[in-house]
Design goal:
The chain is built from 2 helices and 5 strands. Helices cover 20% and strands 30% of the residues. Strand 3 and strand 4 form a beta hairpin. The chain is an alpha/beta fold. The protein has one domain (7-80): Signal recognition particle alu RNA binding heterodimer, srp9/1. It is globular. The protein has a 5-stranded mixed beta sheet with strand order 1-4-3-2-5, with helices on one face.
């Protein structure tokens, strides 16, 4: 997924939207550098990606990390797409094993 075209939203702002019930269509999916959290926030807002506090996209190396971040914002339901994602436990394991 190309996240460069998506608007970045820092966690603090996403949490504020979530507290008002204005976050929807939350999903964790593979991007070029890891997993990202993609969502819609506010009335009619375009698709956003979770950003870092000082700018840039927030990448996760595990679904656990992404889920933990979402739970800390009060978001307990989300979709996950693991297509093209390779868990750390599988990296370096040959296909013949």
């Amino acid at each position: 997924m190309m996240v460069a075209s998506l608007q970045e939203m820092p966690a603090k702002l996403m949490k504020a939207f979530a507290e008002r019930g204005s976050v929807g269509n939350v999903r964790v999916q593979q991007a070029d550098k890891g997993l990202v959290i993609v969502f819609n926030a506010g009335g009619g807002m375009d698709e956003c990606v979770l950003g870092q506090a000082r700018g840039g996209v927030r990448y996760f190396q595990s679904f656990d990390g992404a889920a933990s971040t979402l739970q800390s914002m009060g978001i307990v339901e989300f979709a996950a797409n693991s297509r093209n994602w390779v868990p750390r436990t599988f990296k370096g394991v040959s296909a013949s094993e």
